[in-house]
Design goal:
Blueprint: H1 2-17, H2 20-69, E1 78-80, E2 83-92, H3 94-103, E3 107-108, H4 114-124, E4 139-144, E5 153-154, E6 182-187, E7 193-197, E8 202-209
Parallel strand pairs: 4-8
Antiparallel strand pairs: 1-2, 2-8, 3-8, 4-5, 4-6, 6-7
Helix pairs in contact: 1-2
The chain binds calcium ion (2 copies).
Amino acid sequence: MFMIFFLLRLAEVYTQSLTSDECERCDVRLSDMLRMLKSLQTQVSIYREENMELKSEIKKLSKWQNNSKASVCSVERVHYRGHSYRYHKSKMNWTDAQIACEKEGAYLVEIEDNLESEWITDMFLKKDLCSTYDGQCMVWTGGNDRDTEGVFKWSHSKNTFQFTNWNTKEPSIGSLDVGSYENCLSLLPVGYWNDALCSWKFDFLCERSIHDQMCQDLS
Ligand SMILES: [Ca+2]
Ligand SMILES: [Ca+2]
């Protein structure tokens, strides 16, 4: 803008300083130049207004995004085959983890086939960072045999396991009687399964059907 005003002023001063003869030779060119500069000035004014409008829109979007982050519906979730997953990096015993999932309209994850198992392993587990039985890296699922020893079910659907991915020597049924204590299903870092003491505290993974959401995810 400053440059345009400067050029306009320069043209006016130049015009005023010319003699009559000189003006006759350059009148047309100066008039054209002034017209172009004024046109340019108008365009810059328009761009300036548009820029202010854009800044206003960006400000509104930013405010909306911040408000969304504060909403329970906007917590970071990952969608996969009609379900929404949320990993909780918060260590709880199995029962408290289950309650935490229920509070957000979800349930502890239920793994129904190898595709889902592999996807969860790739998406959420620390397969490259942890040793096999690293308690810091285990994750609760909804699987358990709390009702009948050795009969594992998913806590939400009540379905018995159709697909399993047990680690070697798991589950611990009949193993020095620890099976009767290890009743809740945790995921090992590479995605294999282990029944563990339900009182142990691990991270956990909540799942829910997208159609059962209490509100629409913004992601
Ligand atoms: Ca058991
Ligand atoms: Ca076990």
